[in-house]
Amino acid sequence: MIHLLDTDPRQFSEPENFKYNHGSFSSVHINLNKSLKKLGYYSDYQLAKWVGITDGLNLGSFNAPNKKFIISPWEIFNTLTNFHIYSRESLNPDVVFGCSEAVSNLWRKAGYDCQTAYYGCDVEFWKPSKNKNEIFTFCITNSSNLRCAYDLIIPAFLLAFGTRKDVQLIIKDTNNIEKLILKIKEFQNLGMNLKYFSGRWPMQKIRDLYSESHVTINLQRGAGFGLTTLESMACNSVCLTADVAPANEIVDPTVAMMIEPLKPIGLNDYIFDSIEWGFLNCFGNFDYPEEPKIWDFDINTIASSMENLKENYSYYENINSRDHVVKYWNWDLHARKLVNLLNNS
């Protein structure tokens, strides 16, 4: 019997709001536990044979009455942090999984056994809920931290469409950073059809945004998995992403538009180059066994991909990316895989 702990404090501090507004880590716990219940493998915390956690930063506070496991979501693509390696040593879990092969390979590179227990998508919730906008719409829901590529995507959109009013870019940002908002206004003042929203939205409103948008951009410089990629595709929004791990573990060119990366760049160099945008440093002040690197992309390539999607939308619309998510990435499928992995551990 299995139980996943939910470490999000908002489940206790604001329980009513949390029902409709939980974050990525909570989404994993909630949906995996839900599927485990359907499969007959769920148990309360005190009675479970296996207790698990999937959290990037709270490993040290994790205790379990019996066997314990981690599903690790860390996201620098060439190295773990020393913090995560130390946390694993001090926590001493019975099993560690990566949420993608990209993450599992980081643990293997550090000298630890690691299998992959993928995340999934709640396809019963994430589904088309609105008709497409009359104006051709690109949207982004990635938070404005160092993983996101707003500093490339926004100039690329301007390069592709200029001040055209029949195409728009909608950004839904969790953060509220004054420096970034001022930067956004600079582009709006150029006449670019750009709408920017900050703060948390209920999940239903995000689902509506995906459904109304023709294309959702999930172009991240470093990621552990990519829940928004699956959730937007399940709402039949065409995905624009990168042909790098872990995105290319989730989708392929038959169901998404995929951009080749330009090159890996040092994280410290990127931080210096992106200071004017005011991005949050989601990687904190960590130490690393080696220089951490993230992906860089070419603005012209992003712009031409956007133009392609606009001009050939009827082709991509017929792909029906939702079918891909329902078939390969529903939570029940990955809950079964987790059960099998734990039974064989």
- Compute the separation of the termini in Å: 14 Å
Helix content: 25-40%
Please trace the helix and strand order, writing H or E for each element. Answer: EHHHEEHEHEEHEHEHEHEHEEHEHHHH
Major sheet: arrangement of strands: 8-7-6-9-10-11
**Sheet/helix structural class:** alpha/beta
Sketch the major β-sheet: 6 strands, parallel
Q: Count of helices?
A: 15
How many beta-strand elements? 13
Overall average pLDDT: 91
Radius of gyration over C-alpha positions, nearest whole angstrom: 20 Å
Descriptive tags:
345 residues; alpha/beta; six-stranded parallel sheet; five-stranded parallel sheet; 15 helices; globular
What report would you give on this structure?
The protein has 345 residues and is α/β, with parallel strands linked by helices. The protein has 15 helices and 13 strands. Strands 8-7-6-9-10-11 form a 6-stranded parallel beta sheet, sandwiched between helices. Strands 1-2-3-4-5 form a 5-stranded parallel beta sheet. A two-stranded antiparallel sheet has the order 12-13. 43% of the residues are buried. The mean pLDDT is 91.
Précis, in short:
It is built from 15 helices and 13 strands.
